[in-house]
Design a protein that fits this description.
Elements (H helix, E strand, L loop, with lengths): L6 H19 L4 H21 L5 E3 L4 E3 L1 H22 L11 H18 L3 H19 L6 H32 L4 H11 L3 H17 L9 H7 L2 H26 L4 H21 L7 H22 L1 H27 L18 H4 L1 H15 L7 H13 L3 H27 L12 H14 L7 H12 L3
Antiparallel strand pairs: 1-2
């Protein structure tokens, strides 16, 4: 059997097992597992160059070794590496920052990697559950923190419910299509049209996936889990895991359910607009920065789903570009949240604590302003470009009302991003944050800020070309 198409997954799997052995038999192994996990993720990302990405469907048609999956895996691996680096300076040394944390991130990234390559419903479910089981533990990682325990419990209970819904949808699709392969399901939709049984299977499958991407109305877990989970974990949930779930939903809709576009497009359009509206409006009264970023992630999921609704190669390419830029903006914002600590070094999450940051920590204030305005899609920052792309593909697909509605709602959502800027630059300074530590985190903040600045437009053509080539598999 040829294992070359799964070379990145093999590296992560064997590396995770090795690091677990190190954690079991080596004293004070947290530093080894920490940097070893980062090295493994970088090696997995680099190995994508050597793995055959034009092999198409392999392992009996259950796995796709293509450019679309490779593009998503790079996003996932780099997000996971940043989440591990963030934890090195956030958890209490010798107490919380155990050797198991980076291993859990590796396993979650492995599940996410399987998700984006799945072309079979069973493989899809295996990857999704591997990612989710690790995520449940990560959400409740601070076992002595009530908020973290609550976040893990809520995520586990609601995640179990979503898994049941997804499995029911999978069973219906299998029962009426006679196969779990995406190609077979697509053929069934093409031959029989959207029959009642297939339509019900489609609805329940999309409902299960909607939970994983925290799209309305399956978003209820997101603010509580992001607030209670450790900040590095919340960053990984908002970036890597969310990107994997959106890419999986894109493949399911365009590949497995392509002939039934008229059926699933209505569901996706509703979820997209509802997510944009709720993500914008519900964030208005938030006082916790992590809850605000949770609603921001819901809002951005809505814009990504506009690209899914457009369908085809152009829609998939727009989703890829949107996620690449969104992940950079989100990780940058969470890296700054990590720097919010009081004089005693305890994490501070209130938005009011950002007051006067332009005076007490001007570099952080300017970087945070760049991330907030870019998330809002305000030009000339680079976050404007992916929003423009998804609007453009929606218009090309004949969805002009959707594009207009999403563009108008962008203005509504900009309010709470501008509120953060106002607090930092115009409010009376609050108690200054503790002195920053961690040069690697500082470098990452600077790199993210530069990437979403107007300098990001220098890579528009290469990024768009890569995304278009990756989406050509559809």
């Amino acid at each position: 059997m040829n294992f070359a198409p799964i070379l990145p997954e093999v590296i992560i799997t064997l590396g995770a097992i090795a690091l677990m052995m190190v954690a079991a038999f080596v004293r004070r192994a947290s530093a080894i597992t920490h940097w070893g996990a980062v090295a493994l993720l970088i090696a997995a990302a680099v190995s994508l160059v050597g793995a055959p990405q034009e092999a198409g469907a392999v392992f009996g048609g259950m796995w796709a070794a293509d450019g679309f999956a490779a593009f998503g895996k790079v996003i996932i691996y780099l997000s996971a590496a940043v989440a591990i680096i963030m934890a090195h300076g956030w958890f209490d040394r010798g107490f919380e920052h155990g050797a198991e944390y980076p291993v859990l991130i590796l396993l979650s990234a492995l599940g996410a990697s399987v998700m984006v390559s799945s072309t079979d419903l069973m493989m899809l479910y295996v990857g999704l559950e591997l990612q989710s089981l690790s995520a449940y533990v990560l959400a409740s990682y601070r076992r002595h923190d009530e908020r973290s325990a609550e976040a893990g419990l809520k995520y586990f209970v609601l995640g179990g419910l979503a898994s049941g819904i997804l499995l029911y949808g999978i069973s219906l699709l299998y029962g009426f299509a006679g196969t779990t392969y995406f190609s077979g399901i697509s053929a069934a939709f093409a031959d029989d049209g959207a029959s009642l049984g297939l339509t019900f299977g489609l609805v329940f499958t999309l409902a299960g996936l909607a939970f994983k991407i925290s799209a309305v109305p399956f978003h209820m877990w997101t603010p509580d889990v992001y607030e209670g989970a450790p900040t590095p974990v919340a960053a990984f949930f908002a970036a890597g895991q969310k990107a994997a779930a959106i890419l999986l939903a894109t493949r399911v809709c365009i590949d497995a359910m392509g002939p039934a576009t008229d059926s699933w497009r209505q569901i996706v359009i509703f979820a997209a607009l509802a997510s944009i509206i709720l993500g914008a409006v519900a964030a208005f009264g938030q006082t916790n920065i992590k809850r605000l970023l949770a609603y921001s992630s819901i809002n951005n999921v809505g814009f990504a789903m506009v690209g899914i609704a457009a369908g085809g190669e152009a829609g998939a390419a727009a989703v890829l570009v949107y996620l690449a830029v969104y992940v950079v903006m989100t990780l940058g914002a969470f890296l700054i949240v990590m720097r919010m600590r009081d004089a005693e070094g305890r994490p501070v999450e209130s938005i009011d604590s950002l007051a006067g940051l332009s005076v007490t920590r001007p570099a952080l204030a300017w970087a945070m302003m760049a991330f907030m305005l870019s998330l809002a899609g305000i030009p000339p920052l680079f976050g404007f470009w992916p929003k423009l792309m998804v609007f453009n593909v929606a218009v090309q697909a004949g969805l002009l009302p959707l594009a207009i509605a999403a563009a108008v709602l962008t203005v509504v959502g900009a309010y709470y991003y501008l509120k953060i800027v106002k607090v930092m630059f115009f409010d009376v300074p609050a108690e200054p944050f503790a002195a920053a530590r961690g040069r690697v985190e500082t470098v990452l903040i600077a790199a993210c800020a530069l990437a979403i600045s107007p300098l990001g437009y220098l890579i528009i053509n290469p990024l768009s070309t890569l995304a278009a080539n990756a989406a050509s598999v559809f």
